[in-house]
Amino acid sequence: MNLIKNFFQKGNPRTIKVKQNIAASIGLKAISILISLQIVPITINYINPTQYGIWLTLSSIVAWISYFDLGFANGFRNKFAEAKAVGNIKMAKCYVSTTYAILSILFSFIFLIVFVINHYLNWSSILNIDISYNKELQIVFAILAFFFCINIVASIFTTMLTADQRPALAALIQTCGQVLAFISILILTHTTEGSLTKLAFIFSGVPCILLVVISIITFSRKKYKEIRPSISHVQFSLSRNIIGLGSQFFIIMISMLVIFQFINIMLSRIQGPEAVTQYNIVYKYFNVIHMGITIILTPFWSAFTDAYTQKDFIWMKSTQHKLEKLSLACIPVYAFMALLSPTLYQFWIGDSIHIPLSLTFTMAVYSFVQTNGAIYMYLINGIGKVRLQLTIYLAFALISVPVMYICCKIWGIEGILILPIIIFITQSISGRIQLKKIITNNAIGIWNK
């Protein structure tokens, strides 16, 4: 107990915060995963498999609205953390107020457009389903779009908590929303008949309303009262600072979308639907490690913003080395998982799908280089010097579709992973060089933009 207590309470204050957030986030992530696993059969039983498929499709379509924030959330995250790091509370308040104002205007306009277009959409034709669903789906889509737009604006609060080096608290709020929605679905299954409209309100409305209520209460408390948003502190001129960095994050995000979202489509067209199933099973198998590393890395984003603003290069260098050692420690884990995979596949999915051993080992390499690249990506994102990263992703995005198509044609499912592996290796090498230059104060040109 003393060892555990010392681990979480001794050392650099910034490192202590990171350790505490990682521990709390792991616990919350476990709860979130359990809920997501349980809610699937309950939801299917509440409606039916066909309606559940419709629900998933509509939800994924609405989720594309999030890309219209133009990278504002990530830009705000860094600028707020910088203001807090130098103790400029007034500027932090201005960033909060301005971001709320701009995103409120932007997504009010977006919802108005979506609402009008939705009125003329024939959902039964779009989704190739019975025409009797059309009227209900218009209502469901409107509900999802309404709460999704509100949630993007309200999520400024959780982004602010993450920027304030409290990502575990942000995760707690999100997990509470999931729990509340889960309880609400359980109540619906025992009190009402299946309804997509009610399901849409529960899944999108309940977490959103909870987030709004908690943010209002928290902003009225002492710790965050001094930075709560106000109209008088809205400075639209600050949008240049936010969108300048945010637009770069936006281009990176769109480039990654182009590279990685076409994989399933190409596999289905070239190798057939079974190849998509094989790919996704192996991807989910190894993605468990990447999810764990992401939980660890998340607090370091804003911690690096704070450290870089305060010129604490000693801590930055020490942290980088520790995270690199963590990445190397993952190699035997990936190797063990690959060797053990036939037995675990058998236990997990039985004999219904054959997974080639070559695909398993290729995915293990892909997952490792992805994890290693993510370390530099998160740390550099915190510093805000992302021009090199943007250039790399944009360049690969422009050639990704034809290159992955040719590789898949020649080498099968394994071939489609060649370009993503090259991308993450490139990111790792360039990221390591860039971090060294920044920490030693030798970064110039694109290395310092």
Largest sheet: none
As a whole number of angstroms, the C-alpha radius of gyration is 23 Å
- Give me the number of helical elements: 18
> How would you state the average pLDDT, rounded?
85
User: Could you say which overall geometry the principal axes of the C-alpha atoms support?
Assistant: globular
> Which segments are poorly predicted (pLDDT under 50) over 5 or more consecutive residues?
none
Number of strands: 0
Helix content: over 70%
The CA-CA distance between the termini, in Å, is: 45 Å
Order of helices and strands: HHHHHHHHHHHHHHHHHH
User: Based on helices, strands and strand pairing, what is the structural class?
Assistant: mainly alpha
What share of the residues does DSSP label as strand, in percent? Answer: under 5%
Description:
- With 449 residues, the chain is an all-alpha fold.
- Helices cover 82% and strands 0% of the residues.
- The chain contains 18 helices and no strands.
- The longest helix is centred in the middle third of the chain and has 37 residues.
- The two termini are 45 Å apart.
- The mean pLDDT is 85.
